[in-house]
Amino acid sequence: MLQKFNPKNQNIQIWVGDRLYPRTAAKISVFDSVVQGGDAVWEGLRVYQEGLFCLEAHLDRLLASAHTLMFDDIPNKNTIRKAIKQTLEANAMTCDTHIRLTLTRGSKITSGMDPRLNQSGSSLIVLAEWKPPVYNNEKGITVITSSVRRNSPIHLDSKIHHNNLLNNILAKIEANHAGADAALMLDNQGFLAELNGTNIFLVKDNRIRTPLPHACLPGITRNLVLQLCKINEIAYTEENISLSEAYNADIVFATGTMGELTPITEIDGRKILNNNTTYLFDEICNLFDNCKSENCTPISKL
User: Fold this and answer.
1) What pLDDT, in 10s, does the model give residues 119-140?
2) Burial 74-86 (b: 16+ CB within 10 A, else e)
3) CA-to-CA distance for 86 and 195, rounded, in angstroms?
4) Structural domains of the chain, ranges and CATH numbers in brackets
């Protein structure tokens, strides 16, 4: 589902470094590490009428990723919150907004891979756009299995939410050429990992199943779904899942900030038939909708 340009975003203000710039002037240096090697970390945030969804969990993950990569001069949470608040207020955004929050290692004194060339500290980017969830969650999406594998922990730890997304982009290219909405990526052993931009769940025999978070990102929405299952005594497991098991599931769905909870109707041409007419997905969706407000941080409290 190709996103379209929203004219409301033509004149947005974007935070870069330490202040706001108009969209046409919001730029970073060609010496910045994100340009030189994709050396940055990021989070996707959604703004509802009640506020920013799961903000603290996103900030925790951003800072943990930056710490793992040994960034210098990492801004604290209060600094990031203030930048987000100023950006939203400058654009009069109070809902229906998606924020791409990026922290780069910063600019280098000369081009090169060595982080010792970064001597000016990290750089914060707050890009807030008017943007609804990207999928039609009533209709659902179709996916194909990609030939591109997700990284295992022996290659690059998926717990680092980094900007080097070439694996996922190559998988998305395959989906585009196959006429599918997204690509299902497997781990290096051939088990389900995640879609190119979201986590994956399936329902079989009234039990929720999701891949172990080895090769997949342990997403914020994914974790919330698991918490909701635990609180409401819905049976669930994190385990290795084969492609055949996904084909024959009763329900398959994706979770993520960009799409919320999205039903997957077809994998590699196999329709998801729901032979057991389970209603667990509807229950999870209702629980998710009902918990939104309690998991939101009001903009006024940033």
Assistant:
1) 999 999 999 999 988 898 999 9
2) bbeeeebbebbbb
3) 33
4) 9-130 (3.30.470.10), 141-293 (3.20.10.10)
State residue 162's pLDDT score: 96
3-state secondary structure of 254: strand
Query: Tokens at residue 104, please?
Result: 């780069």
Residue labelled with tokens 């929203």: 6
Q: What is the pLDDT of residues 67-111, one digit of tens each?
A: 999 999 999 999 999 999 999 999 999 999 999 999 999 999 999
Helix or strand or coil: residue 282? helix
What is the rounded CA–CA span in Å between residue 297 and residue 61?
A: 16
**pTM of full prediction above 0.70:** yes
Q: In a 3-state reduction of DSSP, which class is residue 131? A: coil
Q: Coil, strand or helix: which one is 30?
A: coil
Q: Is 50 exposed, middle or buried (0-12, 13-18, 19+ CB in 10 A)?
A: middle
What's the gap between Cα 182 and its chain centre? 14
Residues 257 and 48: their CA atoms lie apart, in Å, by 12
